Amino acid sequence: MKTPLIWEGEWVLIELNTDPVAADYQPFVMFDVSQNRFSGNAGCNRMSGVLELEKDSGRASFHKILTTRMACPGLEQEQAFLVALKNAARFVPVISDSVATQFIFYDEADNKLFVLQKK
């Protein structure tokens, strides 16, 4: 039996471009799979956009990403996260006790981009 993937809820960024995320940098993503949308915080600015998800094939992409434009220190990490979202092409779930606890996202060339963990 295949484990159903539960996307709803808050997912915290814990790794970006193979580096752990700093404790003072707290971006998160919330998915609304039924509406093909996502929203969250990129670290300083709020973000939202379109989510294209093919759960069975593991394909996922983020489009039409909109952000607020607040000036904050350390925007380099935020920009790197937004680029990683734009480049995401597929995901692999990490399953624990029959529940997805993390999603690992990769680009088309199979480079690991970021890891989201269920809050």
Structural key phrases:
119 residues; mainly beta; Lipocalin; nine-stranded antiparallel sheet; 1 helix; 9 strands; 11% helix; 50% strand; globular
Compact summary:
This protein is mainly beta and 119 residues long. Helix content is 11%, strand content 50%.
What topology emerges from the helices and strands here?
Elements: E1 10-16, E2 19-20, E3 28-32, E4 37-41, E5 46-54, E6 59-67, H1 75-87, E7 90-96, E8 99-106, E9 112-118
Would you write up a description of this structure?
This protein has 119 residues and is mainly β. The protein has one domain: Lipocalin (Beta Barrel), CATH 2.40.128.270. It contains 1 helix and 9 strands; from the N terminus they run ββββββαβββ. It has one helix at 75-87, and strands spanning 10-16, 19-20, 28-32, 37-41, 46-54, 59-67, 90-96, 99-106, 112-118. Strands 1, 2, 3, 4, 5, 6, 7, 8 and 9 form a 9-stranded antiparallel sheet that branches. The longest helix is centred in the last third of the chain and has 13 residues, at 75-87. It starts with 9 loop residues before the first strand and ends with a strand. The mean pLDDT is 92.
**Residue windows where pLDDT falls under 50 for at least 5 positions:** none
Give the tally of β-strands: 9
Number of helices in the DSSP assignment: 1
Number of domains: 1
User: What is the percentage of strand-forming residues?
Assistant: over 45%
Residue-averaged pLDDT, rounded? 92
Structural class determined from secondary elements = mainly beta
CATH architecture: Beta Barrel
Helix content: 10-25%
CATH class: Mainly Beta
Overall geometric form: globular
The CATH topology, please? Lipocalin
Query: Largest beta sheet, briefly?
Result: 9 strands, antiparallel
Intertermini distance: 25 Å
Mind telling me the C-alpha Rg?
A: 14 Å
Give the topology string: H per helix, E per strand.
EEEEEEHEEE
